[in-house]
Amino acid sequence: MWLSIVRVGLCVLLFCASAKAQHFPMHTQTTNHLQLNNPAYAGFSGKLNGLLLSRLQWTQIDGAPTTLFLNLDGSIKEKSMGWGFQLMNDEIGPLTTMQLMGSYSYHIKAFSGKLSFGLQAGGIYQNNSWQDIETTENNDPAFNPATSSIFKPQAGFGMYWENQKLSIGIG
What is the 3-state secondary structure (H, E, C) of 132-161? Predict the structure, then answer.
């Protein structure tokens, strides 16, 4: 019994010792526009689609989260190919994140429905303005340099299948 408790305690300690926090922008209404999570859905409907989302949370607090999304997609070449474009801006406290992604998809008839494969590429730019944080110690080393920026390339793949009764996707 005690040996099991010690093992669990050691595992928790090891995982917690190297824990890092990360922030993912929150968005809702993904059921209205599936291309936000799966590039294979770009142009799937055969129409030009656009979506503008805005999320403002805790508006009375300084540094409250603000997220804006712009998403466009459509079809080309007699509806067998699709394209998509996503632009996102997210601000929370000293962190500003901008994301730009482009999507391409190819659609075929398969398994009594429509099957789509999608590729996505782009990048995320993050800027931390640590000088905006009030600390109890001057020149706190945890917040140096005062401003840091990073660009991270992103890529993705997705599949989506749909017939009159069922839809399945992975992205």
Answer: HCCCCCCCCHHHCCCEEEEEEEEEEEEEEE
3-state secondary structure of 110: strand
Peptide bond preceding 25 in cis form (omega within 30 of 0): no
The structure tokens listed for 32 are 């209205």
- The residues that bridge with 156 in the sheet, in sequence order, are 120
> Alpha carbon of 117 to those of 78, 114, 136: distances in Å?
16, 10, 52
What is the maximum alpha-carbon separation in the chain?
A: 67
Please give the helix or strand (H or E) that residue 107 lies within, else none: strand 95-110
Rounded distance between C-alpha atoms, residue 127 and residue 95, angstroms: 6
Residue 103 contacts by C-beta under 8 Å, 6 or more apart in sequence?
Answer: 35, 39, 42, 73, 82, 83, 84, 85, 86, 118, 119, 120
Are 104 and 83 a contacting pair, CB within 8 Å? yes
CB 83 within 8 A of CB 103: yes
Q: Which two tokens stand for residue 88?
A: 């996102």
Entry pTM:
0.74
* 10-59 pLDDT per residue, tens: 666 566 555 555 556 665 656 666 777 899 999 988 889 998 888 888 88
